[in-house]
Amino acid sequence: MVYISHFFILCSVIDIAHVKKFTSCYNFNLNTFGQKPMNFIYVAVFAVLFTALQAPSVLAIESQEYPSEADQYYQQGNFKKAYKAYFKLAKTGDNYSQHRVSEMYANGEGKSVNLPKAYAWSTLAAESGQEQWVSYSDELLLRTKDQNKALKNASKLKKKYGQEALKNKAERKGRDDLFIAGSKCTGTRMSCRKH
């Protein structure tokens, strides 16, 4: 059912004149899948692509809203709330928030000073390629007494929240959604019917 709603959104977003095979966008019939199996494949492919392309825009909208909230907490000196807000965004791949989490660990704001964790978060922010964040990350590694621990922390975080890891997670989510859409599930595992 998720992909049916994505199909309607897709039809309204894409110029219908360019998609001649989908002339039935506005009189879409659920029985179409049974009559023409290729329609299901077309819809599924477009839905997966649409979902994958939509994810960065949703994250960008969140990134615009929450940093200002987190920045307000930080400016007010409410470091615990600022940390929570930055951390929430940092886990979604927001490089600015990853940098702020790193600074908060390095300065002991909202958390106790922890240079290995500060370095780990700074490496994620440095994935953006911004020179100032790359040099900050390098500086933190030099300041860290236990560099091996810092490198291990960075490796763990990169596997979990790095750009490549988040991209793979989004792709897996799209495949999972496709499986659910193709299995004729009604919402509970007891009522799923296989083809």
How does this structure look, described?
The protein is an all-alpha fold and 195 residues long. The chain has one domain. The chain is 72% helix and 0% strand. It contains 9 helices and no strands. The protein has helices spanning 2-13, 32-35, 37-75, 79-90, 95-107, 115-126, 131-143, 147-161, 163-182. Helix 3 (37-75) packs antiparallel against helix 4, helix 3 crosses helix 9 and helix 8 (147-161) runs parallel beside helix 9 (163-182). Residues 1-28 and 56-63 have low confidence and may be disordered.
Structural class: mainly alpha
Mean pLDDT: 74
Rg from alpha-carbon coordinates: 22 Å
User: How many strand units?
Assistant: 0
Task: Give a short account of the largest sheet.
Answer: none
Low-confidence stretches: 1-28, 56-63
% residues in beta strands: under 5%
**Count of discrete structural domains:** 1
Distance between the termini: 16 Å
Individual helix count? 9
Helix residue percentage: over 70%
Which quaternary structure do these chains form?
single chain
Shape: globular
* Elements, N to C (H/E): HHHHHHHHH
